[in-house]
Amino acid sequence: MMTPVPRIARHRADPGAAVPPSADCIADSAGGLTFDVTETGEPGAALLVLRRREGHEQVSLPLTPTGDGRLRAALPSGVALPEGRWDAYAQVAGGAPRRLAPGVDDLRSLVARVPSGSLGHVAVRIPYATRHGNLSVRSWLRAPHAEAVELYRGERGLGVRGRVYGVPLAPDAYAEVCHRDAAGPPIRVEVAVEQAEFGFTVTYGALRPGVWDLWLRPAGEGGPRVRIARLLDAIADKRPFLIHPRVPVKTLYGPVEAGPYYTRDNDLSVTVTAAG
C-alpha cells in the first residue's frame, strides 16, 4: 500500500501575473472533502465551485471565513458528485470564477479505507493537481463496487484478490475477462468466495494479443456486471505509480508478454503483446 505525500502545484508562475488563490484539501474516511482556500482579496460572499469536465453539472459550496485569513468549504459525503473529473474554482460576489491552484493535501484517512457499503454504493473523491497546475477532484460513484485489493504475479497468470461492496457475493459468482476490441464471448473464470471477499486467477495462455478488461458477476449470471477497479486509496491516477512488469508466456496465439495495469479510470485490465 502506498502512503500519499502532500502535493504542491509544480508550475512556474509568471512574475508579473496575479497569484491565483490556492486550496488545501483534507479528506475524511466517509468520502467528504474540506477545502481551505487562501483569501481572494475581493469583498463579498464567496463560493467554491466544482464543474464537471465531461458535462455541464456544477456544484457550488459556500466559503466561510475561518478566522486565520482563509476561507473554508465542505463537501460532505452525502452531497452527490457524479463520476468524473471536477475542476475547482473560487467565485466572489457573482464575479467570474477563478481557477484554484492546488495547495497541500491531507489524504491520510483514505489509506486502507474500508467503506461499509450499506448505502449500496461506494463514493470516492480524490483531489489532485492537473498537468497545468490547477486543482481538480476525481470522483467515482460505483454501485455496486468490486475493489481490487491485491494482485499476485505468477509465471503464467495473474491472481486477483478483492472485496465487493453494495451487493452480496453468491456461491455461483464468477469473473469475466473481456477483450476490449475483438468480438466474441468473454472468458469465464471461477471465483473463490469468502463472505464479501473474492479471489480468482487469469491464465494468460488463453488470451490473444490486446487489452482485456476484468469484470465480476457477484450474484452469478442473473446479477449485475461490475467492473473491477482499485479506488480505495489516495492515488487519483495509478498509471504512473502502480506499474506491474509483464511476463513472457507461450500461448495458443504464440509467445507474448502479459501483465496487469490500471486504466485512466483506475479500472483493472490485462495487456497482452506479441513478443518481438
Give the SSE map.
Blueprint lengths: L21 E6 L5 E6 L7 E7 L5 E8 L4 E6 L8 E9 L5 E2 L1 E6 L15 E8 L5 E8 L2 E9 L3 E9 L8 E6 L7 E4 L1 E3 L2 E7 L6 E8 L8 E4 L17 E5 L2 E9 L5 E7 L2
Parallel strand pairs: 1-8, 11-18
Antiparallel strand pairs: 1-2, 2-5, 3-4, 3-6, 4-5, 6-7, 6-10, 9-10, 11-12, 12-16, 13-14, 13-17, 15-16, 17-18, 17-21, 19-20, 20-21
Overview features:
single chain, 276 residues, mainly beta, Immunoglobulin-like, 2 domains, eleven-stranded mixed sheet, ten-stranded mixed sheet, 0% helix, disordered N terminus, Transferase
How would you portray this structure in words?
The chain folds into two domains: 22-142, Sandwich (Immunoglobulin-like); 145-274, Immunoglobulin-like. The chain has strands at residues 22-27, 33-38, 46-52, 58-65, 70-75, 84-92, 98-99, 101-106, 122-129, 135-142, 145-153, 157-165, 174-179, 187-190, 192-194, 197-203, 210-217, 226-229, 247-251, 254-262, 268-274. It is elongated, with a radius of gyration of 21 Å. The two termini are 33 Å apart. Strands 11, 12, 13, 14, 15, 16, 17, 18, 19, 20 and 21 form an eleven-stranded mixed β-sheet that branches. Strands 1, 2, 3, 4, 5, 6, 7, 8, 9 and 10 form a ten-stranded mixed β-sheet that branches. The model is unreliable at 1-16 (pLDDT under 50). 0% of the residues lie in helices and 50% in strands. The protein is mostly beta strands and 276 residues long. The chain has no helices and 21 strands.
